[in-house]
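Action item from last meeting closed. Structure (168 res):
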């Protein structure tokens, strides 16, 4: 698993801890915080889980001029894209971020949002113990030039349209 970390603010279960708890005892979980040397994780891995996203923020402290992922996150994504195994991209954020160019490198993408202090709910979804449902209450833009993006705009062409999502 590759994860760009944020310091724990409140005690809880991290994504790494939740994954380690969810897999069988015979499964080895390999972890790298920044994926600076992925040569050590290429050996016999079955899947690569990449966790990226925004640092936690509140109100105006989170105001940004664009919705791009950080340079650190995009560097991690580019490094792992060369791995020849299924890859899962987990995005932790409070809003949609620009991911259009990265989607083709991943078998699946999970917009996990900021889930709080307990990551077991995320691993329940990743390992198929729970089937999520949900629809986007907004349109997810392809790039920053589309901002603001609203249903009915003349050039409305989102990455994921209003109402996109899962049902089972």
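Sequence:
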């Amino acid at each position: 698993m590759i994860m760009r970390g944020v310091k724990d603010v409140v005690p809880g279960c991290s994504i790494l801890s939740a994954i380690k708890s969810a897999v069988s005892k015979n499964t080895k979980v390999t972890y790298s915080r920044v994926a600076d040397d992925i040569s050590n994780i290429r050996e016999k891995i079955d899947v690569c889980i990449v966790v990226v996203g925004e640092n936690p923020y509140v109100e105006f402290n989170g105001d940004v001029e664009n919705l791009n992922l950080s340079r650190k996150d995009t560097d991690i994504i580019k490094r792992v894209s060369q791995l020849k195994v299924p890859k899962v991209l987990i995005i932790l954020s409070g809003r949609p971020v620009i991911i259009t160019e990265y989607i083709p490198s991943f078998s699946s993408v999970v917009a996990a949002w900021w889930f709080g202090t307990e990551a077991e709910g995320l691993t329940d979804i990743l390992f198929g113990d729970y089937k999520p449902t949900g629809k986007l209450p907004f349109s997810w833009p392809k790039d920053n030039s589309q901002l603001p993006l609203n249903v009915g705009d003349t050039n409305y062409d989102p990455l994921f349209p209003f109402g996109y999502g899962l049902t089972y």
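Note appended to the action item: The chain has a mean pLDDT of 86.
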